[in-house]
């Protein structure tokens, strides 16, 4: 999935390259060596998201943010800031308008990518919704955006909708209200077991209908709780497979 354009801004070339390579599988990555370079590139080709270091020589992250907020065309661009915890608490926290995440430095790359990907997935859904042929309905393939990604994006966006995932002749319908799972049905299974079954599918299609709303409640956990339980069950299942393989080999 490369539909979302992300501009990464950092004056440290090593960090810049590291972040860019980590994000490349998930979006269309562009880079800028400092705030002034970023400003020129944003004016020339507006990104969907800016991931920016706070402390940079010349035009720092906050000044870049404020300049973009002063321009009508660039005002809606969301930001992710990288900064020390001191700068985050003292100087960046008040900047809540359009700031999606504050990521403390030093950071683990896999954690940064995980948190950035949540924002990227949500932006991708919004782009799909705008270009949808049917008003209020978006479609895609699970190979492009997994059920985990879809459900996290719906939760982050606090959407009320119906998510339908299909694999061959099987279909699972999941209803959300304000981003929280309310109901699910897969054949005769309902509630969480239906989701746990569908989330194992390696591929298929998805459809999100923002015109639909839940009419019953079969799920009590939050969306995050359902996803955590789904990952736990998948880990257990994989562990059982791994443990059975040596015995199979001996036979």
Outline type: globular
Question: Mind telling me the CATH class of the largest domain?
Answer: Alpha Beta
CATH architecture classification of the largest domain: 3-Layer(aba) Sandwich
Low-confidence segments: none
Question: Would you list the SSEs in sequence order as H and E?
Answer: EHEHEHEHEHEHEEEEHEH
Sheet with the most strands, sense and barrel status: 6 strands, antiparallel
- What Rg, in angstroms, do the CA atoms define? 21 Å
Helix content: 40-55%
Residues in β-strands, percent: 15-25%
Strand order of the largest sheet: 6-11-7-8-9-10
Please write out the topology:
Blueprint: E1 5-9, H1 13-23, E2 28-32, H2 35-44, E3 49-53, H3 61-69, E4 79-83, H4 85-92, E5 99-104, H5 109-130, E6 137-141, H6 147-156, E7 161-167, E8 170-177, E9 180-186, E10 189-190, H7 192-198, E11 205-209, H8 223-250
Q: Would you mind describing this structure in some detail?
A:
With 251 residues, the chain is α/β, with parallel strands linked by helices. It folds into 2 domains: 5-127, Response regulator (Rossmann fold); 134-238, no CATH class. The chain is 42% helix and 24% strand. The chain has helices at residues 13-23, 35-44, 61-69, 85-92, 109-130, 147-156, 192-198, 223-250; strands at residues 5-9, 28-32, 49-53, 79-83, 99-104, 137-141, 161-167, 170-177, 180-186, 189-190, 205-209. The strands form 2 sheets. A 6-stranded antiparallel β-sheet has the order 6-11-7-8-9-10. A 5-stranded parallel β-sheet has the order 2-1-3-4-5. Strand 7 and strand 8 (170-177) form a beta hairpin.
